[in-house]
TrEMBL record:
Primary location: nucleus
Pfam families the record matches: Exo_endo_phos (PF03372)
Domain (Endonuclease/exonuclease/phosphatase): residue spans on this chain: 20-176
GO (cellular component) term, any one: nuclear envelope
Protein name: Deoxyribonuclease-1
Entry EC no(s): 3.1.21.1
Gene that produces this protein: Dnase1_0
Location(s) in or outside the cell: Nucleus envelope; Secreted; Zymogen granule
Example of a GO biological process term: apoptotic process
Residue positions of the active site: E37, H93
A GO MF term: DNA binding
């Protein structure tokens, strides 16, 4: 948490130039070993507000039967200025060695959110570690969220979201909606191995319809700011992925 506070300490000074006041919500440190990570949401507090949050109950960690190395910290937001005025964000940084099992278990998180909050307007965000050797093509048909008609994987299978000299799409976005033919987003139309580590997966009819078409992209900051590889890696080993919601 100390590093989180250090990261966010410049925000009060940056707020005027960044367009408004910012706030944040962070999870507790998560992980099965002494190595821990946190999920962090940074948001414009004059435009969105937190309606609720909870940790997905994935089993007994001390007993060794929990599902996720870092269980999702699920947050419901109110967003009065966008077409979709309430949505749920579900982050996951999967353990590479168990990526198949953890990504598949996101379907159970999906149904849990519906049972708890009565909505399937949610976005799964992650470093899913869902490419290269972590999730072979033979495993994708068994991953329930991949074939769920209510959800759509927004970052194309061909996208490279890693800064290093690999060609893997670890970062994905998935929004949910009943999928129609010819949707133009390739994520759910086949079972070829996606090149995806980071992800955006959108679910829910209202949410899918509330996304600006073509807005899901990879932000290649290395190219944008003409950085050498070593300088880009000093920032992050992943390029950010982003998507835009339609204004209300």
């Amino acid at each position: 948490l100390g590093s989180t506070r250090s990261l966010l300490s410049p925000f009060p000074q940056l707020a005027p130039s960044a367009g408004g006041p910012y706030s944040f919500l962070a999870s507790v440190p998560l992980g099965r070993t002494s190595y821990k990570e946190q999920y962090l949401f940074i948001y414009r507090s004059d435009m969105v507000s937190v309606l609720g949050s909870y940790y997905y109950d994935d089993g007994c960690e001390p007993c060794g039967n929990d599902t996720f190395s870092r269980e999702p910290f699920i947050v419901k937001f109110s967003s009065p200025t966008t077409q979709v005025q309430e949505l749920v964000l579900v982050p996951l940084h999967s353990e590479p060695a168990h990526a198949v099992q953890e990504i598949d278990a996101l379907y159970d998180v999906y149904t849990d959110v519906i049972n708890k909050w009565g909505t399937n307007d949610m976005i799964f965000l992650g470093d899913f570690n869902a490419d290269c050797s972590y999730v072979p093509s033979s495993q994708w048909p068994s991953i329930r969220l991949r074939s769920l008609r209510a959800c759509q994987w927004l970052i194309p299978d061909s996208a490279d979201t890693t800064v290093a000299d690999t060609d893997c799409a670890y970062d994905r976005c998935v929004p949910g909606l009943a999928r129609g033919a010819g949707s133009g987003h390739g994520g759910l139309t086949g079972t070829n191995s996606p090149r995806c580590l980071g992800s955006i997966v959108a679910c829910g009819t209202a949410l899918r319809q509330g996304i600006e078409p073509g807005s899901a992209t990879v932000n290649d900051f290395q190219k944008k700011f003409h950085l050498q590889l070593k300088d880009a890696l000093a920032v992050s080993d992943h390029f950010p992925v982003q998507v835009t919601l339609k204004a209300h």
